[in-house]
Amino acid sequence: MSITTNDVDHVAKLARLSLTDEERATFTGQLNAILKYAEKLNELNTDDVEPTSHVLPLANVTRADEVRPSVPLETAMRNAPDEEDGQFKVPAVLE
User: Is residue 63 within 8 Å of residue 71, measured between CB atoms?
Assistant: First the structure.
């Protein structure tokens, strides 16, 4: 697999970047070098390697839930710039 200048142009368009011809050529060469380096992984024998999602054998690393009292409403609202009916009031983000 190799990257063409058309591929670089497509990615630049998605990223809303304007590239010069020199930048286009530079990025094409750099991306092809990265892919060539990554293809070296295909030379490795991975027949006896089990698929994994993490390099370490981790189990559940979260703490157990424990019930405890909540912060009182008055304390939570003390630093709120604006509140209404016991809720934080924020500017609308949708019209």
Answer: no
- Determine if the pTM surpasses 0.70: no
Give tens-digit pLDDT for 66-83. 999 999 998 989 888 898
Q: Is the dihedral of CA 39, 43, 48, 54 positive or negative?
A: negative
Q: Domain limits at 32?
A: 5-43
Q: Is there a domain that residue 60 lies in?
A: no
Instruction: Using the predicted structure, report yes or no on whether residue 1 has a pLDDT greater than 80.
Output: no
CA 68 to CA 56: how far, in whole Å?
33
Number of domains in the chain: 1
